[in-house]
Amino acid sequence: MDFRSIVLCLAFWVSPVFGGTLEQLDHLNTLVYQYPSKALSEINALERHYLGVSRSDTILMRLNALKCESYIQLGENAAAINLARLNDAKAKQLELEHAKPYFLNCMAQAYASFGDYQQALPLLYSSISLSRQLKQPQALIGGLWLRSKLNADVKHNNAAIEDIRLALDIYPEITVQNQRWTWPPIGYLYTSMAKQLADIDEQKEAETYLKKALNEPTTLGKVKLFIALDMARFAQQNQQPNLRDKYTQIARVTLAELSTPLELAVAYNTIALIDFDSGKYSSAEQLVNLSLATFRKEADSIGTISALSLNAQIKLKQYREAAGLTLMEQAISLAKEKERYSDLKHSYATLADYFAKQGKFSLAYQYQLKQLEALENETLSIKNIWLSQLKSGLSREEQIATPNHSLITATTVNGIIPSSLFPIALIIISLIVFITWYQKKTPKPTQPEQIVLNLDTKVDKKKSLEDLLNISKQAGYPLSLLVFNPNHIFKADVPIVIEQLKTKLREQDVLLQQSDQQIVIMLPHTSEQGAINVIDQLASTIEVWQEDSKVNIGLACMQQFDDLESMIKRANISELRKLKVN
Q1: Average pLDDT over residues 510-526
Q2: Are the C-beta atoms of residues 144 and 163 closer than 8 Å to each other?
Q3: pLDDT tens per residue, range 485-517
């Protein structure tokens, strides 16, 4: 009885301690983004406390995930990569697979901060895939948010909006996740959505998201500073000088809450750009000089290029041509070295515009040609990055599908079957292969075969749709799916209708008629608006063959959690809704 009482008392004592630790870690997750230096100090103190304590592996792993994110926030990207690599391996060793996507996200973000998309993207796609597989919404939100930013950087606006919209949709699931790790504040997701909406001229909706971001309870410290700067830039674009000055002042007041030179340098450079666009050249020059000194000291090449280019523009506006051209040449030289084609394009455009205004049209033309060359290199670079990611995604799928079979075969032959029985084994394997081939070749009357009409080949069946869906997910391309039930068309006429529909589709589109006669059309590289245009074209063809009823075609646009069946289901629901309306 005494023993039971002791156990019960221990249980009551341990429970609030454990709960208190979880609350402390959740608080640290918020603090990492608001005040990263303070958060890092608290993480280090907790880490020392839990080192050597039994059964604290998960807590220590989460502390390392938080530490990795604090390194990112402080601009310590090399330290973040090293820590993430170490803990990714440790997670496998400790069988804490759920921790892996968080460290993959951290590594991807660090490489992206260096401008190294070739390294960042495969890590990011692995993280998103693993997050979905392990049902980790916190990691998935972080991965989608980062991928949205990278998509925006390379002008994949539709994909960027889809990613951030999905991240916002699943954000409430953070609270129901059993094991908590780390996730971004919702204010950052709102500002990301606002930027994308502003890019497609949805100004009112963008403003709504920015206001929601600023009014979030977690919008404090560094988060508040950069959201205020986003709002100031938004007001500047909309020619609202009073609002711009209001939000810039909020950012200036919050500067005192930053604690590291690199954080301040990024903020100074952003405020300097706003001041420059506002015609406040003296203020902009002071701030950009402060940021440039720090970027050079910290060997931050991306920040240095940005500060040099802005400083050069300020000098040119102040009629200090020699100093401005010298700084711009430094920016161009560093951008070439680091293959920063977008920065090169911007620098050449600035010089072309400057010399044109000076009446030096020959020089302006030369810089326009260089701008065009930089644009071509940028386009090629983006294409290579995404193609390499697409290939690596397909390679990962092949590694899952094909080598497992060959590995099993090799193990069976070499490890289990004695060498004396090799001939018999080969005969048996050959027979199995022949029987399998023969059964596949022989038509089965009990199962009606699907009629597949692909514009490329007639061999691809349902798998071609699934492959297209997987490739579009990995590459971040938009994809739409249409469904149509030809119930009001005579069966004898359906093949003719299909042939006519083919003439309205592109070469890469795939059309499938399922066993229930439903027609499914997959449209790769097609946004919702593009799919609506296709529907209008197809409907005009179908109307000729069903005179008495309105044409209803269902539509579904790809989301990250989709498989083929879920897309078809959503398209069917869309078609049913249209029927009810009609």
Answers
A1: 84
A2: yes
A3: 888 887 777 888 888 888 888 877 888 888 667
What SS3 class is residue 198?
Answer: helix
**Residue with the two structure tokens 């004592």:** 13
CA distance 40 to 48: 12
**What pLDDT shows up at residue 457?**
41
pLDDT > 90? residue 461: no
Is 557 strand, coil or helix? strand
Residue 218 in contact with residue 191, Cβ under 8 Å?
A: no
Decide: residue 5, CB within 10 A, 0-12 exposed, 13-18 middle, 19+ buried: exposed
Q: Which two tokens stand for residue 328?
A: 């711009």
Q: Count of CB atoms within 10 A of residue 256's CB?
A: 9
Q: What is the pTM of this model?
A: 0.65
Task: Quote the tokens at residue 58.
Answer: 């998960």
CA separation, residue 54 to residues 51, 59, 441 (Å)? 9, 11, 60
Name the one residue in this structure whose structure tokens are 């968080």. 102
Nearest-angstrom CA–CA distance, 143 and 126: 10
pLDDT tens readout for residues 3-60? 444 434 444 444 344 445 678 888 999 999 999 999 999 999 999 888 877 778 899 9
Q: Which residue has the tokens 């003719």?
A: 496
* Tens of pLDDT, residues 156-206: 778 888 899 999 999 999 888 888 899 999 999 999 999 989 888 888 899
3-state secondary structure of 18: helix
Q: How many CB atoms neighbour CB 167 within 10 A?
A: 26
Residue 288 sits at φ, ψ, to 5 deg, of -70, -30
3-class SS at 546?
coil
User: What is the spatial distance between Cα 112 and Cα 582, in angstroms, rounded to a whole number?
Assistant: 49
- Local structure of 519: helix, strand or coil: strand
Are 268 and 256 contacting, i.e. CB atoms less than 8 angstroms apart?
Answer: no
Contact 579, 552 (CB under 8 A): yes
